[in-house]
Amino acid sequence: MCCKVIRIVELEKPAGVWCRHASPGHGCTIYADRPTPCQVFRCAWLDQPETSEALKPDRTKVVLASNDTKLIAHCDPADPTAWRREPMYSFLKRQAWPGAGPPRPVLVVAGRRIWLITAAADHDLGEVDGAQSFHVEPGLDGKPIVRLTGHEAEAHWEAGPPLR
Fold first, then answer.
1. Which of 90, 93, 94, 88 has the alpha carbon at shortest distance from 74?
2. Quick check: 98 and 117 in contact, CB under 8 A?
3. What is the pTM of this model?
């Protein structure tokens, strides 16, 4: 599923279409020579052993990409509401406010549309084209700010509880 939903610039592969080197159910046909982004990418389902089998990307149609500062749920554009189904939805909400630790921004990407998931609400941020990028940072009041950059425009959205 990651070979479909993730954009790979080095292969001129847009997000949402199968990589020409992917053999669904079998793997990558250029595995030994795959580009660096493919070599270093590890979905959260593989990288975090505590992640439930029920969240496996081929079951949920969602690939989870995680780091210390945010979680991005990449949905199969053929099933853009997959992130709203259980158990994925509850998992994303828990990640937005993970109990004792500080909340971290949770973004959902389905095709060109992006949502910011917070404990309080789901915020539809609209569509982004392939030449734009986004990042999340805490605002002055601690609430997350999503910045969209690219071309000649910059936009930002503020939402949710403070990031502590």
1. 88
2. no
3. 0.79
